[in-house]
Amino acid sequence: MELIIYLLIGAIAGFAAGLFGVGGGLIIVPILFIVFTQLNYDPAIIMHMAVGTSLATIIVTSISSVSAHHKKGAVMWSVFRNLAPGLVAGSFLGAGIADYMSGQGLQLLIGFFAVWVAFKMFKGAHVAVDPAQTLPSKPMQLAAGGGIGIASAIFGIGGGSLTVPYLNRHGVVMQKAVATSAACGLPIAVAGALGFMWFGQSNVEVPNTIGYVHIYAFIGISAMSFITAKLGAKAAHILSPAMLKKCFAGLLTTVGLYFIYQGVSVI
Where found, per UniProt (predicted)? Predict the structure, then answer.
């Protein structure tokens, strides 16, 4: 039964990853939080395990999603190369920061962050991309990658909630922003997952785990998300940019309010 749940999570998360370029973490983290709670794991580490396991699954999801976007020629590889070093360093650092935070603190932080990004995204849903806007210099992109990496590791996401708006704001059309964000999810996920494995070694006594990463959940979610991410990527090229932004904002709002509710209810 547990494996079936992980497969279902993977199916939904994979489609979201391909559609929104978010790596599926915004779906995986809240559902894993619920599942791990029902399995009576230590409340102090449930949120950390949900985030760490989410990042591990995004490794597989990103590979599937970015290959589909690459075939359509939508990935801006030059931008990816500028962001990647910062993404890697930031993600590992972010895992270390998350290790020092309480589970409740993580919930509230993720919740308010998601709602804020949703508001910004929905507000600009019908705003046309300004072709006069250009991406910042390479050093500035490197620094942006570092910030995105830190936040993404803390939130257990592939960075789409930050990378997509960042690229969009600098003149990149939605489809290319989503595709490039999907590529950026890979270095974030690898460095972040390794960080959570490393920093969680002395804190987790749950069977079938490496640090904060749950192996069975990782396998089940990854297997299914690899398939459905391709379907989501195809859908992303059918919908209009404005519709994509609205759907993206709706998803973030739902997740954000859920975590705020959970975090506040513990107080």
Answer: Cell membrane; Membrane
